[in-house]
Please model this.
Amino acid sequence: MRDVPARLPPLIRSGRISAWADRHIDWLLVAPAVLLILALSIYPLAYSLWVSFVNYDFLVPGHAFVGLGNFAQVVADPVARWALLTTVLLAAANVATEFALGLVLALAMDRQFRGRSAVMSLLIVPLFISPVIVGQFWSLLLQRPFGPVNYVLGALLGHPVNINWLSEKPWNFIALVLADVWQWTPFVFVILLAGLTSLPREPYEAAEVDGVNAWQAFRYITMPQMGPMVMLAITFRLLDATKLFDTIFMMTGGGPGTSTYTASFYLYQIGFVQFHLSAATAGSWMFLILTAIAISFLVRRLLRVETV
Amino acid sequence: MRRNGRERDFSQELSSEIDAWLRGDTSRRGALARLLGAGALAAAPLLHPRSAAAAWRAAAPHYATLVQQAKADLASPDTPLGRAQAEAVRASTEGPKDGSAYRAVEAAKKLKGATLNMTYESGLQALEPRNFSGPLWQDLTGINSTVVELSHPDQYSKPIAEHIAQSGAYDILDIEPAWIPSLADGGVIAPIDDYVAKHMNQADLDDYHPLYKFLPTYKGKRWGFFDDGDVFALYYRRDVFDDPKLQAAYKAKFNQELRPPTSWPEYDRIAQFITDQMAPKIYGAAHFRKAGSPGNQFDFLQHFRANGGKFFDPTTMKAQLNTPIGVRTLQEMVAANKASMPGNNDLDAVALWAAWLQGKVAMMYSWPPTGRMSENYAQRDKAINFVPASTIAGKVGYTLVPGNPEMASGYVKALAADSQNAEAAYLFMQWTTCPATSLVRVMLPYTLRDPYRLSHYTSPLYRSLWPSAKEYLVNLSNSANVSVVDLVMPGAQDYALTIDRMCTSVWAGEDPAAALAKADAEWDAVTAKVGVASQRAAYEQFMKLPGAYADHTIKTLGMAVTLS
Model:
């Protein structure tokens, strides 16, 4: 570090300012990044913490300190509790289905065949579409009476199909999982395929010599080696799945009733539709802490798998 | 001269072709084919604004300079809309000198160079200030305008966010009357009484339908100018209701005449009867019931009050939804859903219009654009191209929604409290809502502004737009006479959200009483949050508003407007 000032131009080296700059050059270099982080991350975070402990509600004048009142309000709200449960259920259903389908697709694509590149390209197209567009797309497909899905199902089954995909349980949940799986299975597939193609061939050759069948090779060779990739895919997807908002907004509007409210949708509603900002902020903090605990657990598992 | 004569003859023929097409007498393709056959050059005046301006110069040389400069989208001067536009320009430039339009323009000229930022609902609503009032105002006064397009919920939330940030981002806000108490108490909007006294011809206030005259008032002050008569009306298929076979079958079954319903049980009965008789070709009714679509809250609010329901106990401010009246209301709405077309509960307002215009539904209630679109009075190639062309033009009748129709949302032009150009903003509000200018705006085929002034309902120009336009306008006025208004109180957004949640959960199978109990609890929580005492005071204010309840409408107060 002491060599750095020596390399500065003579003009800057001269004078008291340059002498000061010479002494603090390390801080000066870091300062822009630190200021940016303070302005864009730390300050908003600290501000939101303050908001969660005061009244910051458009309907109620003033910013009186309310202690844990905002947190208590969210905890006492049955809609919030239901939204959290829905988030967990939808995230689990989405990620589990995406993992299963992504694994099947990765295994199927882990070989050379004619047209493989074209199939690969087609498979990953949904990844590049905005989730809002995906929500609108599935909404148009499933909406009664104009959406074509019921019509096609009716034609296939030979009798009229009248499913309320967007406004009746459990079909609305199935519709949401369908849309999410359609978009995000390719993500899991790409990660798992990358893992599969990087596996060494020697263990399989040895196993073949020992007369191991395909299932045994998959069970005892492929899956253990794929552990880090599986954890990586699941962790990334869970991180995203717990924030599910766009497709809910476009497809069900959280309904019927509040049945498809997720945590993100709930926080959006109370924050930016009802403008109860302090309650929304308190809820966001609680959700952040819960998510952080779950994700920390997964990341620790992921790191442990990698170091084994 | 011969050339001018030929152009005039052509122009008249062209107008009649376009009018016929708008009325639905001829197909769009046929009309266009004849237009092209007659010569594309001569057709240009109606197809291109610049050429329309040329036609204006020929027909109205008095305004030649202004029109030459105008970037506004002006219709041909020999159409009803073009004539209304000419009248608006005349009122703004020549007077009467004590008219609100003239006074606003003259005062605004002194503020030349200002720029006004105004919020508008994104899409069709925003086309009006972009194409017409914004450019024309700029030409008249030298004041620029910027249209900020927002989704409907954002029209409430963004001004609040900007007010909290004290950004002064907006000058004029397009808001629902129901939001006035929240926005006024929160300091987001400013009262305009002083400006009204200074600049406005007070007689123009009396030109509002009485329902709309009072809506922008709160705590004794005026918080804007009403600007969109969003009253629900019942639209029905005359060919279905007049069908002799259907009439005979109905008479045989119910020993009553088949007629547009006047009560909700009759509505359910007729809807079910028509569905039973005519589905899948035509269904008895359809509604916009999708979650988050505002149909649920508006339908429940009008139906509940028509059945005699009251929202709160005025003493304790406890919610009163979970009552036998509430249960009955939801049961009747569920019966209506069952009698409706498949997918009724997934429909939003646009999907409902699509079904209606395709002739799949025998009756529906919704906002006033329904009547205009039914008669194909819309510019599908420019704007309203997301709904199909009407197949039912000339077959639609108009009547009151059973009981009391909802004045569902509506718009008020309000002055942003943080505006840096408050006077210029006010003057635009006065000018754009004055009788002459607002008549043009509610006649524009591609936007969604609806008649609200007495002079709109009686305008010969509007009444000439299609054969039954007069009946349409009279029905809108009659509907306003007995209309109930949205819950105009602080927390209106929260109360409305609860209604939507309650309704959709009932459509999905929840027991009405249980859903109502939950809704009561949510309403009580909102009331407690805002403050019981302050909400009690606000509710007292609300109950004084004409249209607060079925026993407190414009008609029951003796202020009904009677039109011939």
